[in-house]
């Protein structure tokens, strides 16, 4: 009875401390954004709107694009391309990295191709992608897949190579097969590396989708940014850039929440 009475305030204090820390982080983040917008406003007051539109001008343009639906169309197109290409890259990159890290023959066969193509940026393949795949959605998705798969593969290989050898020896001493080793020791140990690779690849996917949409798309945030130059609408460019940043933040937060829910026991 006494122990329970003593523990209750401690737990409450911990919860209050956690809530206080969380609120502090939020307030610091909000303050940072406010300072940034204020600096932007001061800069816009001292220059041409063509060079640097004001926050109010960008907000007004954002409202207009939301009202006519064009912003949602652009965001939806880019989000779909990123999600499809990135997911395909992760689905292929994870097993490829596991097999390359675990089996020497697979590593020897695939490593020259991985090491060659990973240094070639996706934008270099835009023209060929349009010729081979056409100007449709598959071209943009393929380019995003290309920029994702190598990053995820290499990070997964690193995860396999960092598996604790004592755990493998323990599994073998208990008669574990190669498949059992892969599913119960290697995969769980490599999960943090896979997640890191997937997050890095997601950032690169946003870079790639803008390049791809500039060259071969009629819709999307990249296409909107490129179209803005024809009309001298710098405010459109800012709307596109801010939308990309917010979309990326939401994608990353959703991915982190999902991994914490599904892979919590595998994370450090």
TrEMBL record:
Q: Where are the transmembrane segments?
A: 26-43, 79-101, 113-135, 141-163, 184-202, 236-255
Q: Which InterPro entries match?
A: MetI-like, MetI-like_sf
- Which UniProt keyword terms apply here? Cell membrane, Membrane, Transmembrane, Transmembrane helix, Transport
> Where's it found, cell-wise?
Cell membrane
Record flagged with keyword Membrane: yes
The record, for PROSITE patterns, names: ABC_TM1
Respond yes or no to whether keyword Transport is given for this record. yes
Report any one BP term from Gene Ontology.
Answer: alkanesulfonate transmembrane transport
Q: According to its record, how does it sit in the membrane?
A: Multi-pass membrane protein
Gene Ontology cellular component annotations, sorted alphabetically: plasma membrane
Using the record's annotation, list all stretches that form the ABC transmembrane type-1 domain.
75-259
Sequence similarity: Belongs to the binding-protein-dependent transport system permease family.
Q: What does this protein do?
A: Probably part of an ABC transporter complex. Probably responsible for the translocation of the substrate across the membrane.
Protein name as it appears in the record: ABC transporter permease subunit
Source organism of this protein record: Pseudooceanicola albus
